[in-house]
Design a protein that fits this description.
- It is built from three helices and two strands, in the order ααβαβ.
- The protein is an alpha+beta fold.
- The chain has a two-stranded parallel ribbon.
- Strand 1, helix 3 (about 35-40) and strand 2 form a beta-alpha-beta unit.
- The radius of gyration is 14 Å and the shape is globular.
């Protein structure tokens, strides 16, 4: 979303983001080269979950942002 990183860098972090991060971070593995401000917005309560859909056979014009893999140590890996 346009401007979201600017808001995060300015400290405009909703309380729900902190709650989501506290709850879910134990099952999320974020690569060390992902900047902290970018990693933080992944827990934003306004978009976490509502914008993600898993499709077995997505149409060719759908953007692919992830894939299902064999089980890992944590349920979600951000690379």
């Amino acid at each position: 979303l346009a401007g979201v990183l600017d808001y995060a860098r300015a400290g405009a972090i909703p309380g729900g983001l902190r709650n989501n991060r506290d709850f879910a971070s134990c099952d999320v593995d974020i690569a060390p080269d992902i900047p902290e401000d970018l990693a933080a917005i992944l827990y934003d309560p306004q978009t976490s979950g509502g914008l993600l859909a898993a499709l077995a056979d997505p149409p060719p014009d759908y953007p692919i942002i992830g894939r299902v893999t064999e089980p890992q140590t944590k349920a979600i890996r951000i690379l």
